[in-house]
Amino acid sequence: MDAASDASRTALMVCAYRARATRWPQPIMHDPWADALAGPDGHEIAARFDERFPHMEAWLALRVAFLDRLVGVAVDRLSVRQVVVLGAGYDTRAARLPRAGVAFFEVDHPATQAAKRERLAHLAGYPVDAAHYTSCDFEREDPVERLAATGLRTDEPTLVIWEGVMPYLTEDAVRATLSTLARGLSPRTVVAFDFVGKRLVEGTGISARDHQTRAYVDDLGEPLRYGTNHVTPLLAACGYRWVRQYSFDELALEYLGDYDRDRQFRFQHLAIASPSVPPAGWP
Ligand SMILES: C[S@@+](CC[C@H](N)C(=O)[O-])C[C@H]1O[C@@H](n2cnc3c(N)ncnc32)[C@H](O)[C@@H]1O
Question: Tell me, what's the pLDDT at 266?
């Protein structure tokens, strides 16, 4: 998204998938606000995406379940008192996972954040004040400067969740954002993010269905721009010392209890990273 972009439509789409996954008979995540926030437009965008990537709902549910659990570990077991959601879209963790003494900060592109706040204003009962909001275009602005101006303590350990955003940024913005988080926040900060493989972004040697996936987000105005097969050198170059990676197949096995070759999570990955070796207890 560039500075003049409209609000993100992929953010509405993933919100619709959260709503659907919340209705599973045995849900692995629960977002009571997602249905209303996604609205008919979000559900329609998701419905059209289903045929391109039929496992999107499962993938999204796993991503949210893992990151929700990470918030729980950080605030309940490791005494982290600040949670930053970067590129928040219609994220509702500030409302869903509140804890006394824990501050949530939501950062997003100004157009998406304005659209979200407009929807929240019509959502009865939503605790709008559960988060501090700050806008930032990662392509041209420094999120740490923006967060510090909104009250984030840069000397305190922070959990940063950067969910579903990196693939939409240029490599320069990815590197600049990772670097400023490592340099500008407490070294005890942990950054969690998902990313996609290079071939999906470049469109080389991928299936017809994967081509359709790329084309669909392109048509939504949010083309895939950055993918990597080697996240550890990227993180090392950006100032990180500790990295853990997770496979969605392994998370599916854990959360859903099975392995299904057809899920095709081969381009989707999750990582958590810190500029220093964090205390024991992080997964
Ligand atoms: C697929 S949505 C994910 C939203 C949310 N994290 C979630 O998982 O529901 C992509 C998000 O990236 C944000 N984004 C894309 N490009 C951006 C940029 N240049 N600066 C800031 N945010 C950006 C969009 O505004 C949107 O909220």
Answer: 78
pLDDT per residue as tens digits for the range 166-178: 999 999 999 999 9
Whichever domain contains 166, its CATH number is 3.40.50.150
Cβ atoms of 233 and 176 within 8 Å: the answer is: no
DSSP secondary structure code for residue 174 in this structure: H
User: Among 119, 67, 134, which residue's Cα sits nearest to residue 96?
Assistant: 67
**Cα-to-chain-centroid distance, residue 12:** 13
DSSP assignment of 70-84, as one string? Answer: HHHIIIIIS---EEE
Question: In degrees, to the nearest 5, what angle opens at C-alpha 27 toward C-alphas 193 and 280?
Answer: 45
pLDDT < 70 positions in the chain: 1-4
pTM of the complete model beyond 0.90: yes
From the CA of 18, give the closest atom in ligand 1: 9
Q: Which of 1, 60, 141 best tests ligand 1's pocket when mutated (most atoms within 8 Å of CB)?
A: 1
CA of 168 to the centre of ligand 1 (A): 8
* Ligand 1, residues at Cβ distance < 6 Å: 1, 8, 10-11, 14-15, 87-91, 108-109, 112, 136-139, 163-165, 168-169
30 domain residue, yes or no: yes
In a domain, 48, yes or no: yes
